[in-house]
Structure formats: structure tokens, C-alpha cells
Amino acid sequence: MTTESEHTNLACPKEYLLKMLTGKWKPCIFSYASNGPVRFGQIMKLLPEATKQAITNALRELEESNILERKVIREKPLHVEYTLTELGVEFIPIFKAIEELHLLPVRQQKQ
Amino acid sequence: MTTESEHTNLACPKEYLLKMLTGKWKPCIFSYASNGPVRFGQIMKLLPEATKQAITNALRELEESNILERKVIREKPLHVEYTLTELGVEFIPIFKAIEELHLLPVRQQKQ
DNA sequence: TTCAGTAGTCATAATATTTTGACTAATTGC
DNA sequence: GCAATTAGTCAAAATATTATGACTACTGAA
């Protein structure tokens, strides 16, 4: 995400901004972080289906988009916290708008 | 999109809803359609970098998500119109929230 | 009947994203 | 020193998404 991938449509700012939030795990992680700082291990427990690598990828992408900030906490059990940046906070209304969809589509189940 | 792809995270409704709107061309096409009915050829002109196939894929996915409706218009030049469905209209606030981001990130340019 | 306009389909290739599974590294308590 | 805790990295494989280029199908006008 440092440079544009071929996927990105340079003509559409909305596509660019949406892309910052999408991916298999990024929306969930964003939601968790919007309720306060989250740790790596905590996310692992909250998303038992996601692997370490998957979570690392999502966190790195959110960092590169300047949505999350990584902070090493030098305390009792040394750990890392991820918090929303100023930009990250600005994305909250987008998620609010998603939550407020009241005409929810019926979701297909896997066979 | 008839059944869930492996990509989809069944635990996260937000991921599911965001996925309906994302992809290289879907956000643009959604925007156009939110200003009134659009035609296939019109989209081709508006998105000169997108191929027919790309546009077809985007339209089909938006149809399958029940965001757009395809209507064959039996008139002078026979053509097809795509309009927002009732569900589609509900997605407009999400795009509004994206437009209202005022702390816009600096966009990297391709080398 | 042939042609332009409209709206596509199809098979294949190229890219991007996600998963898998083994391995690493710093700190703290014993 | 040694193990547990926390937080990762790395290379490779599997999937998903997007692009390419040739081809199709219907309608109405000349």
C-alpha cells in the first residue's frame, strides 16, 4: 500500500478511501479499535478464525493508511496497543452509516 | 456472490456490507447511479480505463447484492438502464459519510 | 440484407489477497 | 539459565479479483 497497486482506480477517491477499510479482517479490527485500544493477542481471541499473519497484515495496512497507530507499552507485561489515529476517528461515521442500514439484505449461507 | 466466498468473514456484518460496495469500479458506478439511471455505454464513456468485462462484472455484482436493478428499455434506441433499488438508496449515507471526511489523506502517486 | 448502435459473453492470463505452517525475538519470573 | 508470555516474521501455496481480446445477439434504418 506504499504505492498504488494496479487494482486502485486513480479516478475515484471513494474507491481509494473504501479500500482502506476493506479486506477480510480490517472492518472487524477497526470496530474493536473504535471502542478503545486493542492488543494483538486480544484480536487473536476475538477473531479465532484469523491467523497471526492475517491479523498482522490487517494491522499493517491500517497503520499504513494512518488509521491505526501502533504503540509499544513499556509496562508490567510488555505489550503493544493499537489505537485509532485522528484520521481513524474520522472513519467512525462511515461505520455508523453501515450500522444504520435498516433494510438488511438476507445473507446467503455457505452450502 | 451467490454463495459466500472463502474471503468473506461470516462473523462480521460490516465486512459483508462493505464488500458489496468495494472493488475497482463499483464505487464509481454506484455514485453515477445515485444521480439517476445509467446505461452501460454511458459508464463506458465515464470510465474509459475500464473494459466492458470490468463494467459487466461490477454491474452484475451490484445486481446480485440487490443494490442496482437492470431494466431493459423498449424504446427508440433499445437500451438497458441501471437504477438504484430501495436497498441501494440506503447505501447513499455511507457514501455521504465518505465524502464528508475532511482530513483527507495524502495520496501516493504511482511511480 | 447489410450495417451501425447497444449491450453484452467467453476463455484465458495476470495480479492481488489470504492462508499455511514453521520459525524468531524481546522481556520477565523462577 | 530456562520457560512462559507477547508479538510478531518469512516463504510458499491457495483463492479471488481484474484484465485481455475475440466473439455474440438483438434492433432498427438504409
Automatic annotation (TrEMBL), chains A, B:
One of its GO terms (molecular function) is DNA binding. It holds the Pfam family HxlR. The keyword Transmembrane helix does not apply. Residues 12-110 form the HTH hxlR-type domain. It comes from the Bacteria. Keywords: DNA-binding, Transcription, Transcription regulation. The keyword DNA-binding applies. This is DNA-binding transcriptional regulator, HxlR family. It comes from Pseudarcicella hirudinis.
